[in-house]
Design brief:
This protein is mainly alpha-helical. It is 56% helix and 0% strand. The protein has one domain. α7 crosses α9 and α8 crosses α9.
């Protein structure tokens, strides 16, 4: 009889992201084949370690950027869900070297843009200043991607925003607090009553 412990398939959070990403159009979310193929073990040169790619200060900044995109309201925000650290893991493990370089350069570009707009770095900016910057960068990335829909790598803020959304809505908080989650799916019902403002149902990975 097979060993149950050896045959048990554990669904990791990265597996869930791959599955949800495929359902949502993963190549559109984070650029080309990064999500769908990039999570496979690399056969070539080893990936850089987290310390070589993103510093603790970079990760802290990503946490704050994500929390500006998805702030706490009636539900916890991105920072509470640990989005920044997991974004760093995905950049390290799912992006190829060119995309990694573009993402790291994007962090520096975001800091320069904040200094230009407000005279302070992002971590020192007030919440309203951070929001103004994020809105401007979102407009910039939208215009850039509209002009060049096949832009590779995508605009850096597009990568940050898409990762923030993907990681948040596949986190425990995103699944069980921001959305409605039922551990065991019931029957399919195409006509469930919906009241404006109700939470969306969390998809099953």
């Amino acid at each position: 009889m097979p060993n149950a412990s050896s045959d048990l398939l554990l669904l990791t959070r990265r597996d869930a992201i791959l599955k949800v990403g495929a359902l949502l159009g993963g190549t559109a979310l984070v650029g080309q084949s990064a999500l769908l193929a990039g999570c496979a073990p690399a056969a070539a040169a080893p990936r850089p370690s987290g310390a070589e790619l993103l510093s603790p200060a970079d990760v802290a900044l990503l946490d704050e950027v994500a929390d500006t995109i998805l702030p706490a309201t009636s539900t916890p925000g991105a920072k509470a869900a640990g989005v920044g650290p997991f974004m760093a893991v995905m950049v390290r493990d799912a992006y190829d070297p060119r995309e990694q370089r573009a993402f790291v350069r994007g962090i520096r570009a975001l800091e320069r843009a904040c200094m230009k707009m407000h005279g302070v770095g992002f971590m020192s900016a007030a919440p309203a200043q951070r929001l103004a910057l994020v809105v401007e960068l979102d407009r910039e990335q939208f215009d850039a991607m509209r002009r060049r829909p096949n832009m590779t790598p995508p605009h850096y803020f597009r990568m940050m925003k898409d990762f923030a959304l993907l990681v948040y809505f596949t986190s425990e908080i995103g699944y069980t607090v921001a959305m409605r989650y039922t551990e065991v799916p019931g029957r399919f019902d195409p006509c469930v009553p919906y009241t404006p403002g109700d939470k969306a149902w969390a998809p099953h990975a």
